[in-house]
Amino acid sequence: MLQVPWQWWIHEAPYDFFRYTPYGLKYMLGKAGFLDVVVEPQSGFFTMWLLKFNYFSLRLIRGPRPLRWALKAVFIVIWYLDQKAAPYLDKLDKNWAAEAAGYFVTARKP
């Protein structure tokens, strides 16, 4: 079992082997002799995108301490709500494997 982070669109499918894409994971594990390789996305596009938004917006908070506290108080509500909404929005995503927050892999060695 292994889990890898992702958060970027798959390029040149199905020939994107040397990043931890589903294709690359299956290819590398297959070359290493593993069987029954199953790669499962851990989220859809919206969860991945909102995670990126939350991390990016947190890095933008600058200034004197009272201003930072005020901005965080506003943003924490947005961060909370978007993370609660993300799993529901992910249901709109018909291709979870293409752009996910990460992948969970199971395989077995003969």
Give the structure's gist in a few sentences:
The protein is α+β, with helices and mostly antiparallel strands and 110 residues long. It has helices at residues 22-31, 45-60, 65-90, and strands at residues 2-5, 35-41, 102-108. The longest helix is centred in the C-terminal third of the chain and has 26 residues, at 65-90.
Protein architecture, described:
The chain has 110 residues and is an alpha+beta fold. It folds into two domains: 1-44 and 95-110; 46-92. 47% of the residues lie in helices and 16% in strands. The protein has three helices and three strands. Strands 1-3-2 form a three-stranded antiparallel sheet, covered by helices on one side. Helix 2 (45-60) packs antiparallel against helix 3 (65-90). It is elongated, with a radius of gyration of 18 Å.
Cα separation of the termini: 14 Å
Rounded to an integer in angstroms, the radius of gyration calculated over CA atoms is 18 Å
Domain count: 2
| Poorly predicted parts | none
**What structural class do the secondary elements suggest?**
alpha+beta
| Overall pLDDT score | 89
Task: Categorize the overall geometry.
Answer: elongated
Order of helices and strands: EHEHHE
- Number-wise, the strands total 3
Largest sheet: 3 strands, antiparallel
| Number of alpha- plus pi-helical segments | 3
